[in-house]
């Protein structure tokens, strides 16, 4: 195991709990202690009450240590938020260079959070950053680190077989109480879970990009997921400072079921020449108040991921012309232009 920051301190600390909240959601000084007390009650629930819920294996779960598989934009974001709310996190990727980049990115983003949250107390901000970084370690070997995990969150490439392979291997090594969760955007949780023998302890935990900023988490249960597992994940999401919603394991869950047709139609509109990419994006930003237009958002999500999603939906619905191949998306992906993360997609980035 390659340990970058190595720390394994797991106590949920008061100054970590509200760390990632945007300023509009942060409590005033006068309400902070009440706010913190509520968070502590939720942390207590996750850490202790889940233990006694029922006779299933998950009753022993106290989510203190998690393994996040995939050190890309989502995995790094999930690790950042978990570490800054007092959890010990091991971030895993097959590529050590990606892990170094992820830790550097986490440090940079923690500085942005600290600058906002501790604008009047820079020394507290520095302490917050160091404590969070001590909670993160990295590894290129998931099998070697999963034994100590209460929760495994997978955020690797959007490919069913690759996700099934990783979970099937870890299922044989992880303790019985460990909950497995996938951050998939579009794949069936039931299909991913079928590669394991812990169907009652398997769920979707779908974060939004950028994880430190976006407040939503979709908690997705299959017909086999136990209520104890769902309760633990709903409470864990709250301890992270997020607002969870419960979803059935249906295509796209809630958000992507609505977002997918919107982005598809925007790309088709651009391909038909009915509007320039800039005008389509400006129209949706100024007309609907969205922070990003649909083509900017596609670049932000990653065009490789968009193509994985599109190919999967297309294979599942071959008769539906909505999911027909997109010439512009295919061309950009073939050229390695995956959007913001590679410096070019529909737009160029510095
Ligand atoms: C025809 C074929 C088509 C194929 C179609 C396939 C369709 C597939 C669709 C499915 C997509 C799947 C993705 C998924 O599963 C779900 C998603 O995640 S969808 C994406 C959701 N995200 C959004 O919608 C993001 C929208 N954008 C924004 O909210 C803002 O633009 C953003 C916050 C990203 C940036 O804001 P901006 O003002 O532009 O920049 P700033 O840099 O000033 O940031 C604002 C604010 O936020 C802080 N911040 C930003 N990033 C981070 C970070 N990583 N960590 C910490 N803090 C961060 C920053 O500091 C600023 O704070 P201030 O207090 O305002 O200074
Ligand atoms: N990009 C987005 O906006 C969102 C993506 N998601 C989902 O999250 C997942 C990850 O997406 P991103 O972080 O954007 O992708 P990414 O491409 O930034 O990162 C994926 C990472 O997984 C690593 N990886 C691949 N196979 C692996 C394996 N077997 N073991 C360990 N690591 C492995 C890669 O090296 C890469 O670093 C996907 O399932 C995606 O659909 C969910 C919400 C939003």
From TrEMBL:
Residues 252-349 form the 3-hydroxyacyl-CoA dehydrogenase C-terminal domain. This is Hydroxyacyl-coenzyme A dehydrogenase, mitochondrial. It comes from Gasterosteus aculeatus aculeatus. Residues 66-250 form the 3-hydroxyacyl-CoA dehydrogenase NAD binding domain. Belongs to the 3-hydroxyacyl-CoA dehydrogenase family. It is found in: Mitochondrion matrix. PANTHER family: HYDROXYACYL-COENZYME A DEHYDROGENASE, MITOCHONDRIAL, PTHR43561. Its EC number is 1.1.1.35. Residues 1-34 are annotated as: Disordered. It catalyses: (3S)-hydroxyhexadecanoyl-CoA + NAD(+) = 3-oxohexadecanoyl-CoA + NADH + H(+); (3S)-hydroxydecanoyl-CoA + NAD(+) = 3-oxodecanoyl-CoA + NADH + H(+); (3S)-3-hydroxybutanoyl-CoA + NAD(+) = acetoacetyl-CoA + NADH + H(+); a (3S)-3-hydroxyacyl-CoA + NAD(+) = a 3-oxoacyl-CoA + NADH + H(+). GO terms for cellular component: mitochondrial matrix. The record marks 206 as: Important for catalytic activity. Mitochondrial fatty acid beta-oxidation enzyme that catalyzes the third step of the beta-oxidation cycle for medium and short-chain 3-hydroxy fatty acyl-CoAs (C4 to C10). Plays a role in the control of insulin secretion by inhibiting the activation of glutamate dehydrogenase 1 (GLUD1), an enzyme that has an important role in regulating amino acid-induced insulin secretion. Plays a role in the maintenance of normal spermatogenesis through the reduction of fatty acid accumulation in the testes. InterPro entries: 3-OHacyl-CoA_DH (IPR022694), 3-OHacyl-CoA_DH_CS (IPR006180), 3-OHacyl-CoA_DH_NAD-bd (IPR006176), 3HC_DH_C (IPR006108), 6-PGluconate_DH-like_C_sf (IPR008927), 6PGD_dom2 (IPR013328), Mito_3-hydroxyacyl-CoA_DH (IPR052242), NAD(P)-bd_dom_sf (IPR036291). The keyword Lipid metabolism applies. One of its GO terms (biological process) is spermatogenesis. Pfam families: 3HCDH, 3HCDH_N. GO terms for molecular function: (3S)-3-hydroxyacyl-CoA dehydrogenase (NAD+) activity; NAD+ binding.
